[in-house]
């Protein structure tokens, strides 16, 4: 469930060449999240295309945050809001996932999506995200294949950016199946 209005994505999807600043921006955001939440942070990881050296990506830092209980929003949402994040997605039917965002216009060095899971409820998706990232970091052929698919899809106009993400699903699943077997 989206929190607030779902606005159409009025600009083209932009896939940029890899930017060596992306890990630096992740590190700064991760430090701010850890400072805001302290011991509630069980694990924090840079995920998504910006976490894969050499891979072109939308310039959005995706962060995986593991907290003890995503349903206990009172414990972590307010401190993250004070750090500049806004709760944007609540998905009780998908591993109790939450997504908070921070945008350039809110003072971030780039746009950030903070994906929040609990260890037990989100274990399957957490593993998938990390396996996919790690596979792309070490398998150049699949990294090039994924980048080509992303660049081709970015040429289309999308009403919502989620439609672009959904369009990549078949390629992601194909690569992920190799990664999980490999």
TrEMBL record:
SUPFAM superfamilies named among the record's database cross-references: Nucleotidyltransferase
Domain of life: Bacteria
GO biological process, any: coenzyme A biosynthetic process
Keywords: Coenzyme A biosynthesis
PANTHER family per record: GRPB DOMAIN PROTEIN (AFU_ORTHOLOGUE AFUA_1G01530), GRPB FAMILY PROTEIN
Name the UniProt record assigns to this protein: GrpB family protein
Natural source organism: Nocardia pulmonis
High-level lineage: Bacteria, Bacillati, Actinomycetota, Actinomycetes, Mycobacteriales
């Amino acid at each position: 469930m989206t929190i607030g209005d779902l606005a159409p994505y009025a600009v083209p999807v932009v896939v940029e060449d890899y930017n060596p600043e992306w890990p630096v921006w992740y590190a700064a955001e991760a430090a701010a999240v850890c400072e805001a939440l302290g011991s509630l942070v069980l694990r924090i990881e840079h995920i998504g295309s910006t976490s894969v050296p050499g891979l072109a990506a939308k310039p959005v830092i995706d962060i995986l945050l593991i907290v003890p209980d995503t349903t206990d929003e009172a414990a972590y949402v307010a401190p993250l809001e004070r750090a500049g994040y806004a709760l944007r997605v609540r998905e009780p039917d998908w591993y109790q996932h939450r997504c908070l965002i921070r945008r350039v216009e809110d003072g971030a060095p780039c746009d950030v999506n903070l994906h929040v899971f609990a260890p037990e409820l989100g274990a399957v998706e957490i593993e998938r995200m990390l396996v996919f990232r790690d596979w792309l970091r070490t398998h150049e052929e699949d990294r090039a294949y994924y980048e080509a698919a992303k660049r081709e899809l970015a040429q289309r106009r999308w009403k919502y950016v989620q439609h672009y993400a959904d369009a990549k699903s078949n390629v992601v699943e194909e690569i992920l199946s190799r990664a999980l077997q490999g």
